[in-house]
Design a protein that fits this description.
The complex is a heterodimer of chains A (about 500) and B (about 500).
Chain A: H1 11-17, E1 19-29, H2 68-80, E2 84-85, E3 92-95, E4 105-108, E5 115-123, E6 129-141, E7 145-149, E8 161-165, E9 172-178, H3 188-206, E10 218-227, E11 238-243, H4 246-265, E12 273-278, E13 283-289, E14 299-300, H5 311-319, H6 325-336, H7 340-348, H8 352-360, H9 365-382, H10 394-405, H11 411-422, H12 428-435, H13 443-456, H14 458-465, H15 472-482, H16 489-500
Helix pairs in contact in A: 1-4, 3-4, 8-9, 8-10, 10-11, 11-12, 13-15, 13-16, 15-16
Chain B: H1 10-19, H2 24-42, E1 45-48, H3 50-65, E2 78-81, H4 108-115, E3 120-124, H5 158-165, E4 171-175, H6 182-188, E5 191-194, E6 215-219, H7 222-232, H8 250-258, E7 266-270, H9 280-295, E8 299-303, H10 311-326, H11 348-359, H12 362-374, H13 381-404, E9 407-411, H14 427-431, H15 438-443, E10 447-454, E11 460-466, H16 472-490
Parallel strand pairs in B: 2-3, 2-4, 7-8, 7-9
Antiparallel strand pairs in B: 1-3, 4-6, 5-6, 5-10, 9-11, 10-11
Helix pairs in contact in B: 2-3, 7-8, 8-16, 10-12, 10-13
Classes of the chains: A alpha+beta (about 500), B alpha/beta (about 500).
């Protein structure tokens, strides 16, 4: 069934001649203490098959019991995505044989999702807002994890044997399915990325998941189809599975657009199939062909009773929902008075939370931005770290700026104090004392230093006295050097001019 | 004691134990001896756990000697159907696919038995995965009916019923998906109760059809059934379909019934569960029992439940559908039998296929195929969907009937025990055994079978009593009243009329 390798069409050319339509399914692992249907612990990195019970191993006789916190999390997600929350919904069994599914059926929701008919506004980097319609968000359980041993590729082909770890089996998942996202044209890859990223931010804001992409807490399946024009019916789609980073989401969509354009240009039909994404080479390859023969024989799960969240409970949950990322961003931008470009930079640098905390500690929005987007951003970049990784807290930055504002240190000294903080020498106040970095405000030592400097450069004094103020800087520089930068340059200038008699 | 203690009911044994007339060790040993003597012919047990049972018995005796307060049934031995998982004790569900599997956990009802300190004598034979009405579908050989060793003991719980009828155990646990407690009860002359769905936890029952399965007591008297039902029943948070409210007072209802006064009780005779297809002797005993109930003051009314006509058809779509999914986990990957294909690559899929091909018997395969078909895309609405609608109609029929009657009654099974092999090659004839018992499972209402005499062929007949959901106490009252009145006319229990079994000389 695999088609011969066809030429990829250059992306720009592909999107000029075809209209891409995307659809995204995102699975998020909920950060509950226990699994969806049993008391096995949910934790990352345990010994294989140590976080299991008769239920999550699918032993004969075991029965599922629904995790109430997982339902609450699912409702939170549904509400955050502006969905309707079902008054009653059921679980279903999705029957298929595979060793990582211990019962050989997955307990999922089929025709009765807990949340449906929602939308999410997604902001692109240039500030464009795209509204993504949400078809449904439903609850299900995760599968175990297969490890194929003995082959060259780590894939099942060529492996000598396979190991299964059921620690992940039964971890609660919410799957969020979009309606087809149309009308985004050449920005489809960017929209896909921004959508997944926005969802990730929402999961964190809701505190329903750690939402760590690299651990597979959030996994995206990207559907893509092309059609000749926005008026044409939808084309045949492919589903690229388990795309697990924001960048990969964007790249996978881009690649599929180029690939499918190549197939269509060659006069062939796109095959409806599952495709695998290869992070290293940036291509997708054919997986399973989705045929009509695949029949999951869904039927209502008789071991569970319907889930009927009371309206009071749903409203209680709604009342506790935190502010959503886009709304928060808009509010903070208005409060802080940042320009659009400034705000974008702050968000892209991951400095939003840090600046918010710094401002909350009493620093002006401008002051906070100056530090985090200036000196600290430079330091982070230099050390190949994120701002979060730096060993300085918003409270320390706020204290540092307060020292500057009070005149006890100047900007140059402040950078030295920051050095100290980053080196782990303590809080700014401690470092000012321990390193002796306070601005010299006593005129006595300054006058002595000025006299020394004038004596060392007598021609300058003469020039200045002759009305040429230009060379004053050289004297100020010498005084600053002599006082190791701790003098207030403005005060030094005043004293020099006074001394020379100007 | 001079009397044979294996002949005592559980309630009598409990009294003797409490009085100190006999020790639990003696009682347990007597039953183990009886098993050793007769089970070679009967094959009611798949596993006998002598050591475990005696250890429990000795523990009970020690505690009693120390003056500890014990559960009334503490020290009374019990047999458990092999579909119920027992920690550290083999559990096969009558299938080769689970041969040698030792469960790492106890079913909730087994936990309750152990907590009350009932010595567990062993695991009883059954049709594979509880699929059958004769125990002939066991992968481990037939169980014989103590009334006639050439005949079936009913099924699927033929082992539990035969063990109790043959005095190998005073109490046993059965499970009932379409009649597997009640029909064996009828054909062996024992009492069998299928509680209200959700009344006894299903946690640890190897599921056939999750929406129909129920565990319940298999005993020789109605009072014993009530005692056991109260012990194993009640809410279990590990079973989402378990009823949260406490059980009604069953023992009290049984004691009240035994006084013989049924005045004011309306007994509804279901028109659709009699007549054609029912053996003459079965119908005759049923009619006599109605007269007995009338004599105790009950009012007999006719009720019609027209949808019951479709119950068997609906059942044979819903049950296999659920079973096809429930039995998917038996694949050789994690537990039980594992068979690798003899030729070709050894892939997971091929190991699963080879294991299931070798491990499941024909009846199990038949139902998996039926269920897989019924759930298939394009057929779901016509089969599973329609069957669920019939189920709703049956529930409505019950609701309407219980407006007119407090309990509904019928013969439990259309015939007495048939000979081995008689219906083995005719699945439809076999399925018809459950025609009267299935409606209760589809509606989730409780049902009881009480022995009500012998048919013309000299074999026992059962009388079925059905009550509304969560009103199990009603059938205990009526059942105990009928039992008491009939035993008065017989001059003892029906089982006293059973032929003596040939006993094997003990080598112990």
């Amino acid at each position: 069934m695999t088609s011969p390798t066809l030429e990829l069409v250059a992306y720009d050319d592909a999107v000029r001649r075809y209209d891409p339509v995307i659809g995204i399914e995102v699975h998020v692992e909920l950060g509950t203490k226990t699994k969806m249907f049993c008391a096995a612990e949910v934790a990352y990195g345990g010994e294989p098959n140590s976080q299991v019970t008769p239920v999550s191993l699918g032993l004969p006789g075991a029965l599922p019991v629904l995790n109430g916190t997982a339902v609450e999390h699912a409702i939170k997600i549904g509400l955050a995505l502006n969905c309707t929350i079902a008054e009653s919904c059921r679980f279903a069994r999705k029957n298929y044989f595979y060793p990582d599914v211990p019962k050989n059926f997955q307990t999922s929701q089929y025709d009765e999702p807990i949340a449906y008919d929602g939308w999410l506004d997604v902001e692109l980097e240039d500030g464009t807002i795209v509204r993504v319609e949400i078809e449904r968000a439903h609850m299900e359980e995760d599968a175990g994890k297969n490890t194929h041993v003995g082959g060259a590729t780590g894939r099942i082909h060529g492996a000598e044997y396979s190991l299964v770890d059921y620690n992940r089996a039964g971890i609660p998942l919410v799957e969020i399915v979009t309606r087809p996202i149309t009308g985004v044209g050449d920005r489809a890859p960017e929209v896909a990325r921004a959508y997944v990223q926005t969802l990730r931010d929402i999961f964190r804001a809701l505190d329903v998941s750690e939402a760590r992409m690299e651990r597979g807490n959030v996994r995206a399946d990207v559907n893509l189809s092309l059609r000749p024009s926005p008026d044409s019916p939808l084309g045949t789609r492919t589903e690229t599975k388990n795309v697990n980073s924001f960048r990969s989401v964007e790249r996978a969509v881009r690649f599929e657009i180029s690939r499918q354009a190549g197939v269509l240009d060659a006069g062939q039909k796109v095959i409806q199939e599952t495709r695998h994404w290869h992070e290293d080479t940036g291509v997708t390859t054919s997986g399973r062909v989705k045929s009509d023969a695949e029949d999951y024989r869904y039927f209502p799960e008789p071991d569970l009773v319907p889930v009927a969240p009371s309206r009071e409970w749903v409203e209680e949950i709604r009342a506790t929902l935190p502010e959503m990322p886009v709304a928060r961003r808009n509010r903070l931008q208005a409060e802080w008075g940042y320009a659009d470009a400034e705000m974008r930079d702050v968000v892209n640098a991951g400095a939003l939370d840090l600046i918010e905390a710094t401002v909350a500690a009493g620093t002006s929005a401008a002051g906070a931005r100056k530090w985090w987007m200036g000196e600290l951003a430079r330091r982070a970049k230099q050390d190949d770290q994120t701002l979060e990784d730096l060993t300085v807290t918003p409270a320390q930055i706020s204290a540092l700026q307060a020292l500057v504002d009070s005149g006890r240190i100047n900007d140059k000294l402040a950078r030295q104090v920051l050095e100290g903080v980053l080196a782990g020498e303590g809080d700014p106040e401690d470092i000012v004392v321990s390193r002796g970095l306070e601005v010299v405000s006593d005129d006595g030592p300054l006058l002595a230093a000025i006299d020394d400097a004038l004596a060392a450069q007598p021609d300058i004094a003469a020039k200045v006295q002759g009305g040429n103020l230009g060379p004053v800087g050289a004297i100020i520089g010498a005084v600053m050097k002599a006082t190791r930068g701790q003098a207030d340059a403005g005060r030094v200038r005043e004293l020099v001019l006074e001394r020379i008699g100007q | 004691m001079s009397t044979d203690i294996t002949r005592l009911s559980a309630a009598e044994l409990a009294g003797a134990l409490a009085r100190g007339d006999v020790s639990s060790t003696e009682v347990t040993q007597a039953h183990l001896d009886r098993i050793a003597a007769v089970d070679g012919d009967l094959n009611a047990f798949l596993h006998v756990s002598s050591q475990d049972a005696l250890a429990t018995a000795q523990d009970v005796d020690a505690r009693r000697a120390a003056g500890e307060e014990l559960h009334p049934l503490a020290g009374v031995p019990i047999a458990v159907k092999d579909v119920v998982v027992t920690r550290g004790m083999p559990t096969t569900a009558g299938s080769k696919i689970l041969e040698g599997w030792i469960p790492p956990y106890d079913a909730t009802l087994v936990e309750r038995l152990r907590a009350a300190r009932l010595p567990i004598l062993g695991k009883t034979n059954m049709d594979e995965f509880a699929m059958g009405s004769s125990t002939e579908h066991s992968a481990y050989g037939n169980t014989c009916n103590p009334w006639d060793l050439g005949r079936i003991p009913g099924g699927s719980g033929g082992g539990s019923a035969a063990a109790v009828a043959a005095f190998e155990a005073p109490l046993a646990i059965g499970t009932d998906t379409g009649g597997s407690i009640r029909q064996p009860g009828a054909v062996t002359g024992t009492v069998g109760v299928k509680p209200t769905y959700g009344g006894v936890s299903r946690y640890g029952l190897i599921a056939m059809a999750s929406s129909l399965d129920q565990a319940g007591p298999v005993t020789r008297t109605v009072l014993d059934a009530a005692l056991l039902h109260e012990l194993i029943g009640g809410h279990d948070p590990r079973d989402s379909t378990s009823i949260p409210e406490p059980l009604p007072a069953l023992v009290e209802a049984a004691r009240q019934g035994a006084t013989g006064d049924l005045s004011g009780v309306r007994v509804g005779v279901v028109t659709e569960l009699s007549g054609e297809g029912y053996q003459e002797g079965v119908s005759a005993r049923f009619a006599e029992s109605l007269e007995v109930l009338r004599g105790l003051g009950a009012e007999i009314v006719e009720v019609s439940c027209p949808s019951f006509t479709y119950a068997l058809d609906a059942y044979y779509l819903i049950m296999p559908s659920e079973a096809s999914s429930n039995l998917a986990k038996f694949d050789g990957m994690r537990f039980g039998l594992r068979v690798e294909p003899t030729e070709g690559p050894v892939t997971a899929e091929r190991v699963m296929a080879a294991t299931r091909g070798a491990g499941f018997g024909d009846e199990v395969k038949r139902r998996i195929i039926l269920g897989t078909y019924a759930l298939s895309a394009g057929y779901y609405d016509a089969y599973y969907g329609s069957a669920q609608k019939v189920r709703t109609l049956i529930q409505r029929d019950f609701a309407a009937a219980f407006e007119k009657a407090d309990v509904l009654v019928s013969p439990t099974a259309p015939t007495t025990a048939f000979r081995f092999g008689e219906k083995l090659d005719d699945p439809l004839a076999m399925y018809l055994n459950d025609v009267a018992t299935i409606p209760a499972n589809l509606a989730g209402v409780p049902g009881m079978s009480v022995p009500n005499g012998l048919s013309d062929d000299g074999l026992p007949v059962g009388f079925q009593i059905l009550a509304p959901a969560k009103a199990d106490d009603r059938m205990y009252r009526v059942g105990a009243a009928l039992e008491a009145a009939l035993e008065k006319t017989w001059g003892g229990s029906l089982l006293a009329q059973a032929p003596e079994l040939k006993t094997t000389e003990l080598t112990r």
